[in-house]
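hey so u asked for the seq, here:
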Amino acid sequence: MNLIETLKPFVIKGHFILSSLTETDIYFDLKEAYGKPEILNFIADSVYEKIDKETTCVAGKGFLGIPLAIAISSRHNLNLVLIRDKPKIYGTEKFIEGYIPKKWIKLLLLMMFLQLEEV
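ran it, structure tokens below
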């Protein structure tokens, strides 16, 4: 099984306007794919295979980046950083949550799963 074959059932053809306001005729419904644990785990493992093994933490931002970062972190014992779209205006008012590296070394930032929805 490879990543492209795994994601084919989640490709939708039609006319779509993305959050970046660009238009496309193809859409990857990764939210549906993430709803199936075996597929989310396969995606997480596929991404992990591509990263430098000296990576010490994984970060996620957005609706697609956070679940993927959590899956990679959990499956491969990496520290986890969660990045908000904008700082909270209540409580601690944090923009970054979770593990805060003392040195920003080998941080893999997963911004909406490599922005696959906008490819």
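The chain is about 35% helix and 25% strand. The chain has one domain: 3-118.
lmk if thats what u needed
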